[in-house]
Amino acid sequence: MHLLTAEAQRIDADEAVDLDLAPAPIVILSAADGEITAFAQAAARRPEGAPAVRLANLMSLAHPMSVDLLAEKTLVHAKLVAVRILGGEGYFAYGVERLRKLAADTGTKLMIVAGEPDFDPELAARGTVSLDDARAFHEACRNGGPVNRAQALALLHALLDGGERPPPATIVPAAGLYAKGKTPKDLAELAAIYGGMGPAVGLVFYRAHLLDGLTGGIDALADGLAEAGLRPVPIFATGLKDPVASAVVRALLREADAGVVLTPMGFSAGGEGNALDEGGRVVLEAVQSLAAREDWEAATSGLGVRDLAMHVVTPVELGR
Question: Bridge-partner residues for 176, per DSSP?
Fold first, then answer.
């Protein structure tokens, strides 16, 4: 049997992967890369002394031996394992049985919830935690965003030490302010995070990036603006054609008196007169390249074909 390293880019049916994860009290398994990224960011923001968290993608556990290796090296030392399964138990059948046996043998708490929006009580019953706790974790994951991810981790922590459960998950609105993993309630709270009294610069990005934890580029850009003496106003939105989100974006940019807006949403801006360019405001496209960082740094041609099509050609052709 061929055993691949953890850096393998694809998993075939007859090959196994050794993820070789260091043991930790909490292990989370998910089939969604975005969710893993979001949990990693939430874990990094947890206070000092919080239980360590390990994360792994279920797609790397397609081979039974991959599951066995993870169980023997990592899961056997865990106090709690939480699993999010897309497509039902059948897509991780061996893993579920292996985890159930591990829980029975070691006393490890086991939480199994669906990766889909609807809560599956039968699947959750395959775990060892209460249905109420499983449902609360599922709701936090379903709604996404930094606050709900933090609450999901807080719930897992509470299951370990018997502490107080966190508040229920909150629904992330269609649009709102964002700063360093938080969603400030108003511009005053935003200013307290970034400081600075310089000219305001709007930074409008997709709500989906917030939910999936893909905000590293936004954080870096906002920090750069602040360091340059400007006042960043990051705003997430479902889309600029959504009337509810568009109204919130307009109101926030107007209240902040932003004369310039940076956005990676030019592809869906909707043409002249959208929520960004009100009153002659300058709008600049912030391209989030699809290329890997090393490819971008080594390239001599600037943007690749996909980036040109998405961020340059299409917006220009549609008059955005």
Answer: 236
